[in-house]
Design a protein that fits this description.
mainly beta, elongated
Length: 612
């Protein structure tokens, strides 16, 4: 019997794309690493680091527009959000309408901090205090309505002298002097001249007294009868409260703030942008008039970050001086001091609203991308390094970077600008590229259709305010498939592979129908569209597939199925493609109330000969 050899088909090759990491906009789509994508909108890494659809968002409330700031605040036993909408301050609690606390404030971007359970805001025109009043209601007023009046001189004789005790308060014209009366003098000389027209008050042994005149020009109080001597010899028994022109507008004009060593620091007054001012420890209503610092040259202070034992002061980019300065607390002659020393030169911040952290690393937005403040454990030298290399090309094209905002959320640094969000993912393994001039980089993602003007992260929740006055939140609190919608509209997400030539741009390839497919993450409702793009076209859809897990609560008779298997789903391409040089595979989901995640893509192909 004769035997004949059966001819075998052409050799088949398989390229698998897996262990996905993030996007890479730094190079051509043909040159990115196979684990990254040149196009992957609206995805985020899951607990295992694989890309899945981000949660959608919904509108919670509407206030005056635009929203200039959002702030988390513990209102009694409940968590609340303070909203700065246009020229008004609101308190919002879940399930309630925003409560108007104050109106007529400056319409501009604001910043704030919490101290002693109270929230303090800088609007660029006012310095505001928000607290829970005794009747259980939230109140918002200017800090100047409840300031600390310092005791500037003690142990004074009627003719003056005594000991300087506390510094004057920049927030108030009021100050106090205490005297030890001699029982014979009528004239008492204060420690300042040129008194203002505010009410002057005298207390003898703690009781308010009358019967005196005032020479405001010379700063002398003239009593009708000499105040009595103290009952305890040598102890001050007369206290006079008076006013001198204040400088409260310096603090009210400031636009950035930070807390360090129990003190509030504020800066970026447009008239003196290189100065910052320090409050007394634990007293945000008391800014000593000598507690100011000129930080470097004339460039503006943009923000503050904590780095180890230091407070980093980040300034705007300039070629004339350092852009990062370091403040540290210490004790000198029994007094706490806060000396500042020069840090890093070269790269400064572009937006005062885009400061954040990934774990313990401070980050800020510059003209060159997102920068990290790092410390060498060996030399203890501080440096600024790029952390956003993979998305810098897209970031630099965004208009309005000086108004970009950021928040720290679920281990990510989230940056919002131009209706988009850019994420640096601190949960994934870090990468390295020599071009970035840094020790490491973060994997990155980008989101579309997020009209955030300001961001607020509160635990696992992420809120944002919009230009048109809406308070919105991402649907992280929703467990059903309604989680995946942007105010009732689909969240469109996709993952594209590189434009892959499989190691040979001089050979034709053919995609085989069998052996090509993808593995996707299981959801109660999901679907996928597979698109193939070669060097010859702009892409064509070859497969659409729904993949639902049967669940009575999520039943849709139009796409009913009875599979309750929650294992990852395999979707074969079911179609081949002939004679291409490069092939880019895009898997996309645009379904309303549908989840999506991709675990891997397999491409089976044969080589068809060399190009001519």
């Amino acid at each position: 019997m004769a035997r004949f050899a059966v001819p075998r088909g052409p050799k088949r090759y398989v390229t698998t794309y897996a262990r996905f990491r993030g996007v890479d906009f730094s190079t051509d789509p043909a040159l990115v690493d196979p684990s990254r994508s040149p196009f992957a909108p609206n995805l985020i890494s899951d607990a295992g680091g694989m890309p899945e659809k981000r949660p959608g968002w919904r509108t919670l409330a509407t206030v005056r527009s635009p929203i200039n700031g959002l702030y988390a605040w513990q209102f009694g036993q409940q968590e609340a959000i303070v909203i700065h909408g246009k020229d008004a301050i609101y308190l919002w609690q879940p399930g309630e309408e925003p409560y108007l606390m104050l109106e007529g404030v400056t319409d501009g971007r604001s910043q704030g901090f919490v101290m002693n359970g109270e929230l303090y805001l800088l609007t660029g025109g006012e310095y505001l205090r928000i607290w829970r009043a005794e009747e259980g209601l939230a109140r918002c007023r200017k800090v100047t309505e409840n300031v600390y009046v310092p005791l500037t001189s003690i142990g004074r004789d009627p003719a003056g002298g005594g000991t300087a005790y506390e510094a004057c308060n920049l927030l108030s014209s009021r100050r106090r002097n205490s005297f030890c009366c001699d029982g014979t003098s009528k004239n008492y000389v204060l420690d300042a001249q040129g008194l203002d027209d505010s009410h002057l008050e005298c207390k003898l042994d703690g009781q308010v007294i009358t019967g005196y005149g005032v020479d405001r020009q010379k700063g002398i109080v003239v009593f009708d009868e000499p105040p009595a001597k103290p009952q305890v010899a040598g102890r001050d028994n007369l206290e006079i409260t008076f006013g001198v022109a204040d400088q409260a507008e310096k603090i009210a004009r400031c636009r950035v703030c930070g807390v360090y060593d129990g003190c509030a620091f504020v800066g970026n007054d447009p008239e003196e942008p290189a100065y910052d001012y320090r409050s007394a420890p634990g007293q945000p209503n008391y800014f000593p008039d000598l507690g100011y610092t000129r930080v470097g040259g004339d460039s503006a202070i943009m923000g503050y970050r904590r780095i180890g034992p230091y407070q980093a002061i980040i300034k705007e980019t300039t070629s004339q001086e350092a852009t990062v300065y370091l403040r540290q607390s210490g004790v000198l002659d029994g007094q706490t001091v806060y000396p500042v020393k020069q840090g890093v030169s070269g790269v400064g911040a572009i937006s005062p609203y885009a400061f954040g952290n990934i774990l313990d690393e401070p980050l800020f937005l510059s003209e060159e991308g997102v920068m990290g403040l790092c410390t060498s454990s060996v030399s203890e030298e501080k440096s600024v390094q790029n952390r956003s290399y993979f998305i810098d090309t897209a970031l630099k094209q965004e208009a309005g970077l000086d108004q970009a905002c950021a928040a720290q959320w679920r281990g990510c640094y989230v940056l919002a600008v131009g209706g988009r969000c850019y994420l640096l993912d601190g949960a994934q393994e870090r990468a390295w590229r020599s071009q970035s001039m840094g020790d490491y980089l973060y994997e990155c993602y980008h989101w579309e259709n997020v009209p955030a003007r300001c961001l607020l992260a509160r635990g696992e929740d992420l809120f944002f305010g919009t230009e048109d006055g809406r308070l919105c939140r991402f649907n992280t609190d929703i467990d059903t498939m309604e989680r995946y919608a942007d105010d009732g509209q689909p969240v469109v997400c996709a993952w594209s592979t590189k434009a892959d030539d499989d190691g040979s741009f001089a050979q034709y390839k053919t995609l085989r129908r069998r052996g090509s497919g993808l593995m996707i993450k299981p959801y109660l409702r999901s679907s996928v569209t597979v698109n193939l793009r070669t060097e010859q076209d702009f892409g064509q859809n070859i497969r659409y597939e729904t993949m639902d897990i049967f669940d009575w609560e999520q039943l849709d008779l139009r796409r009913v199925g009875f599979s309750s298997n929650d294992a990852p789903r395999i979707v074969p391409f079911g179609r081949g493609l002939g004679r291409y040089i490069t092939l880019q595979i895009t898997v996309k989901n645009d379904g309303l109330y549908e989840g999506f995640g991709v675990y891997g893509i397999a491409k089976c192909y044969t080589k068809e000969g060399n190009i001519k």
